[in-house]
Amino acid sequence: MTESFKIDFVGIGAAKAGTTWLGHMLEGHPEVSMSVPKEVYFFNDRRFYGSKASMNFAKGISWYKKHFQHATNTKLKGEITPGYSIDAIAAERIKAHNPDIKILYCLRNPVDRIESHYNFVKSFLGEETRPMDQVIREEKELIEMSMYFKNISTYLAHFPEDQICIVWFEDIAAQPAIVLDKVYSFLGVDVNYRPASMHEKSNPSRKSRFPGLQEFISGSKKVFIWAGLSGLIRKVKMAGLGDFMTKFNSRPIQKERLTPELRQYIIDQVRDDVNQLEQWTKKDLKHWLT
Known about the structure:
Elements: E1 9-11, H1 19-27, E2 32-34, H2 61-65, E3 76-80, H3 88-97, E4 102-107, H4 110-124, H5 132-138, H6 140-144, H7 148-156, E5 164-168, H8 169-174, H9 176-187, E6 206-208, H10 211-226, H11 230-238, H12 241-248, E7 250-252, H13 260-281
Parallel strand pairs: 1-3, 1-4, 2-3, 4-5
Antiparallel strand pairs: 6-7
């Protein structure tokens, strides 16, 4: 007999577009249980820049459920994995998992998102030595993850519009309370909840001091999750120890900036997609193309 388990909402991306902030805003809500860790990479097979192909789906729903052992039956359950946005098979699997699921999609100026993504992989993950220009031209997922209309169209082929909520990175910075009202209302939870960290910047650009320590922490989390102790990891994180370790093991960096020529290259690649997104959302996005 197949084990029955389903989540209520899923964030599909995009990387470096506010998903970490959104995860923090949701995991503290008394009516919401987020997965441990935030990114499970269950429904996708494809990799995206800075990640590995997961192939976790083959491990089955019982493996997925272990990331929610701390969740109660009275709470909404959800996770956020940026790779889902560019993997068509993820949309199909999510639909099969729960056709009524609610989908969150964080969007950011494509040029800024790509610049931030490169700096994160190079400095914090320590997995990049190539020049920015070379990476952006060779790693197609960097551009593809910024093709927001193309990506959301894949999901619109499986889900109605009213099951999809767009979260704009610019709004997170300018009016976080309004963003939370929108997201909480969309999910059907108490809109009056206000996290203490609402105005704090999440996942800022930093350089890892000891990459091996970060790998050890990630490996330890997997062991605890396998043992059904996701709740313990969550308690440690909610106590602030997770943020402490991240800050201890990293330091601020001077980010590399795109050259005017490279900025224009990106704009030329995403121009048609941005225009289509603008028409669909009825939001003025002309500043993304300048």
